[in-house]
Amino acid sequence: xxxxxxxxxxxxxxxxxxxxxxxxxxxxxxxxxxxxxxxxxxxxxxxxxxxxxxxxxxxxxxxxxxxxxxxxxxxxxxxxxxxxxxxxxxxxxxxxxxxxxxxxxxxxxxxxxxxxxxxxxxxxxxxxxxxxxxxxxxxxxxxxxxxxxxxxxxxxxxxxxxxxxxxxxxxxxxxxxxxxxxxxxxxxxxxxxxxxxxxxxxxxxxxxxxxxxxxxxxxxxxxxxxxxxxxxxxxxxxxxxxxxxxxxxxxxxxxxxxxxxxxxxxxxxxxxxxxxxxxxxxxxxxxxxxxxxxxxxxxxxxxxxxxxxxxxxxxxxxxxxxxxxxxxxxxxxxxxxxxxxxxxxxxxxxxxxxxxxx
Length: 358
Ligand code: OSB
Ligand code: MG
Hints:
This protein is an alpha/beta fold. Helix content is 36%, strand content 16%.
């Protein structure tokens, strides 16, 4: 699906979104939907559309087709022997959560234990050709109601940009995401960010690091948030023990599904670490799963789940996800993900299709 506007991070520029949609059917007439939130290239994580397709076809789909699954939490255990490949796993696991929620007639948020009727939302803004373009984008996002602004940073696009944003907009809720663009050699630069009252700095150091982040956190007043480094509740436990962060960005795909996402949420709640829901520029299907997850009580910071119109000319769900003037998304009370999936739109964007039967 072509993005309305390119999205640039420290690891590269995304102009269109390639991903896999998963549709599952049970013995009844219900259909569950999930999204494999991989990218075309292995720049955010090592998975790609191609590797996810391979892992699903050869290893994950055979674990579930024809199986008797009564609880969505069983899926995690069916996939347990297969190492890594969390986004491939999550696409199928989330589709099964949707299916089982629909069979029971409850919203997915309820099945997960969520309590909110509406969720507070923020927006993640990419690197732009000039600061003035970014300032315009922030202006628009604030006018649309977004409750928190996150901007991408990289070496050469960091302290100056943050300084300009503060000068222009004052004390708005602001944070930055580096997608692993720095090392401990940049400590003095990262320390300069302490002057700007940021809510947090997301994933400044290596994508697989916990130790250096702990060392950095000890030298900063600003809280660190981990994204790429946390792939499981075990990773979260170690990060908390080491003091690597004060927030965790939970992405359903990165952690292998909704059961693991909830486990991380629950652990962080017990440990007094706040969480928020990250995004992977999802279509409506992945977005709906993010909304359901965000209804859990420890999602205490507005997440990256923005309106459909922030990404797409047309989304593949009905109704589209919209954000209220005061920056909330109302949670659907319909069963499962709570949105109708538009098959004609999906067909329009589909390159490859495969049906597995037992
Ligand atoms: O690091 O959070 C990230 C998008 C693609 C890959 C990684 C990230 C992001 C975002 C955008 O920040 C989140 C969104 O709007 O979906
Ligand atoms: Mg991030």
